[in-house]
Amino acid sequence: MESAGGKGIEDIRNLYLKLNSMFYKYSNEVTGILMSTLARENYLLIGPPGTAKTTLVYVLSKLLNARWFYRQLTKFTDLEEILGPIDVAKLLEGKVERIYVNSIVESDFALLDEIFNASSAILNTLLSLLNERVVYDGDKVIPVKTWTVFGSSNRIPEEEELQALYDRFPLRIFTEYAAPEDTEALLTKGWYLRRETENLSPVATMELIRDTYNELIRHLYVNINDVAKVTSPIIADFVEHVPISNRTRIKVPLYALAYLMIQGFPLSQVNATMLKVAVMKVSRYLVHDKEQLSEYEAFLTAHLPDELLKVSDLVSEAKALLNNNMVNEAAQKIKEAEETLNKLKARWDKSLLSLYISEIEETEYLIQRLRGAIYGSEQ
């Protein structure tokens, strides 16, 4: 067995870094896809066409040397395209059997594109596949080897008959087109991605993924009382703003531990503070729709460490002052924000800094932009 400690955790981290380096401003999507893979959870990517949803799953499968299955679903997609064709030779003998080779049943990863456009026959089949990892094929119950099922769609389903299917994807991400000002960087990264995809080599294995999942489950079995005591207040606060089902709440500690492994922390190093931060970060993937992301952002802000929240407030004040042409006052606020941020970075330990790196980098970026605007105002 390949443990997720030592070399294993290094491989998981390298997998994240490789994926993140290949895609432009896709760190949330990359974190989500790896978290769902380590937690053996279904993952839904929602967004307009051309936002690299399919490519992300394909690249992950290449980096893990995983068997992957892909279908774009329509109302006319036949069940045989998902489960495999009927074995004609067996049919001539009076037996109805399928050939499951190269079907979803035999895959490690499955990507079902435009999943909510599928026929009712396929949708009914998917419900048991997603929840129980079995399919009911005639009078047979067929175990499904698929480790993680990825769905993609350009919409959230409104139809009542699709809500059960939507609920089978508790982890969700909303992809977007790059901003106009990001076009140059997007072009560069896009061609790099195209070149790299053609020459990818595995950086980890599905064996590591399976062993890591089993390690996570064992850890929760042994430590669930302590984990629940730490995580339940954060989860309870979140569901006050964004309702999530009982089934999903139970799995949040699993997602949080998987998230920490992606950040490079073996389970032996996880402490209460790290676990609380991880729960806050994974809550992003539990919202029902894009509108609830503002609720998530408010929730995250409310739980930021006081020092980081102070920096954020100072930056907001500087922006407001600059909008009112109070340049000197804005410059003073920026100076205070920078000093507070530097003190924070000097005092915090490496683990806490790494867990809040995205917020810190975003704050530093805003400070730089405001400094540029102030400098421009003084010219």
TrEMBL record:
One Pfam assignment: bpMoxR
Taxonomic superkingdom: Archaea
Residues covered by the AAA+ ATPase domain: 39-179
InterPro entries from the UniProt entry: AAA+_ATPase, MoxR, P-loop_NTPase, RavA_ATPases
PANTHER family noted in UniProt: ATPASE RAVA
Name of the protein in question: ATPase associated with various cellular activities AAA_5
